[in-house]
Amino acid sequence: MTLKEITAKVLGMDANKINGKTSRESTSEWDSFNHLLLVSEIEKEFDIKLKMDEVNTIKTFADLEKILRTHGK
Amino acid sequence: MPKKEVAELNTTADYIRAYKNKAVLSSLPNNVKKLRVAILASSTINGLKEVLSIKSRDFGIDADVYVGEYNQYTREILDDKSELYTHKSDVIFLFIDTRAIKDSFFLNKKEDSWVNEKFAEIKSLIEKLEEKTSATIIIHNFERLTNSPLGILANKEKNSFTEMVGELNRKLVKETMDNRRVFIFDYDNFLAKVGKEKAFDPKFYYLADIKLNLELLPELAEAYIKYLIPIAGLTKKCLVLDLDGILWGGIIGEDGLSGIKLGPTPEGRPFWELQQYILALREQGVILAINSKNNLADVQSVFKKHPYCLLKDEHFAALEINWNDKIANMKKLAADLNIGLDSFVFLDDDKTNRMIVREALPEVLTLEMPDDPALYLRTLSNLPFFNKLKITEEDRKRGDQYREEKKRTEFKSVATNMDEYLKGLDIKVEIKKADKFTIPRIAQLISKTNQFNTTTKRYSETEVAKMANSKDYLIISIKAEDRFGDSGITGVAIIKMGSINWHIDSYLLSCRILGKEIETTFLWYILEEAKKVKVTDVTADFIKTAKNVVSAPFFKKSGFELLNSSDVKETWKFDLKKKFTKPAFIKIVKA
């Protein structure tokens, strides 16, 4: 699964509607529990572990993409 | 087992998505059992409700799940008016986490009283739940943490937290050992199985007090379902086995007695241990049967002569070893054993056979077997469907009872007529009021008897005990034996006693003993008891289900008159001035 597909699944959104600017603030489904669920699903799918700090700094879909790159994915 | 609209679900997010998708929920089959489940937890378990609700469907259960507020379990249990009590749960899980019950678990100060205090606290919560509900209560035991600062001395030093938790766990088990309603879920062992470090991600704990990783919620749900299955009465009764490639490696017809793989060798051990496991299942009441394409003589030679074949002819209640197709054989087994196909679990190593059986007989649970025999035992032991809430004396005797039944059938085939057969059986029955020794078995019969059951009302053990102690109800059971063996308690009647009328609320008998007029004798007893207290008539309902057609003619045949009837329910009445004859060949022994 792609990052976008995972995000769409967790947030219950259409993947086409997700872009770099999709943010926690502007997306009601992206609440604190779904945020952690999203991290958990990403970790499982890409076989990586995010740091606590990273989990806290993610505010937008672009942040997610950036962090995934720093983990070499 | 309903197949399988949620089979593609893998991760926790998949389950949550499916739960939120109303279309999925409403499209689910309607023959599922409804259960009300409450979960109280000390830490964050968001997501468990959704995962458990969806996953339960796979096992034929429609779970209405209530999750208590975060870390409010004590208040909810102590407050009579809490939401927990308005939920009216059938099952309550109490999930208190180790890290929640102690402020600091690294300092090993002298704390002699800690275990006793915690134990008393939990005990009082359990007692309150027992008093306020009629639910089955399931208490998580506590994780023994793996990060003790004592290191290798964690089980040498007296005040080691690891050991204190171990002691608390042992005390909980001991306390509830004989309690029929309260179960200790070995959560520590569950975590050991999935891996404690895999189960616990410190960042989720620090960020949100999540102590079980979200990705493991489906595993926890499955562990919970092991309890839900017997509570919903979905325990399977019979394990049907293929032979070649299941009970031994190789093909007996080709490899011969010395060529098959079975016993303490690398290739033989997986089969040998599987046989040990299956034999243990039999000892706790699972009926064994064979459905195999083979020459009977070849198979008999393995049973008789192979030094490591633990399963013998006598362990099987029925054998279909022939060249007929597996579907016909399966139907024959169900008919011979007099149990429904939906009580069968089928083990076959051949993919095509599994497909054929699954296609033709979807009610049989055909287990998906791994290609590697080394994994057979794990596959079978992970199956939740043989779980029971208790093992009764009847369970332990069941295997032998089926063997006795085979002898009965042989005896019947040589008797010249039915009367001679019944007389020759030398049947004795013992009828007695429910007491604490018989109530577990009575509750078991109530929960699983489908065919000869006039109203199919399901009562929990607690409800049965309550009725048995009430002046308004008479609960009696019947135990039968004949020259071939003892069938144990195989029938139950619940009667609501009024001053002029007795009403038969429930009347059920195990199919195994039908056809010998034991059911008539049991009814005669009730009518006689009613006469003794000057009751004028006895009434009874017949409530039609998909499975109880065999009991439909019973009241009419017994001389009852129909009072009224609708599509689903008939009410029958017997005027006690009428004569009712007891079958002459059955002896009633006073208990």
Automatic annotation (TrEMBL), chain A:
Superkingdom, natural source: Bacteria
Sequence ranges assigned to domain Carrier in this UniProt record: 1-72
Residue stretches spanning the membrane: none
Protein name, as recorded: Carrier domain-containing protein
Organism encoding this protein: Candidatus Taylorbacteria bacterium RIFCSPHIGHO2_02_FULL_43_32b
Automatic annotation (TrEMBL), chain B:
Protein name per Swiss-Prot or TrEMBL: BF1531-like N-terminal domain-containing protein
Domain BF1531-like N-terminal, first and last residues per copy: 36-225
NCBIfam families, A to Z: FkbH, HAD-SF-IIIC
Species this protein is from: Candidatus Taylorbacteria bacterium RIFCSPHIGHO2_02_FULL_43_32b
Pfam families: FkbH_N (PF21211)
InterPro entries: BF1531-like_N, FkbH_domain, HAD-like_sf, HAD_sf, HAD_SF_ppase_IIIC, SGNH_hydro_sf
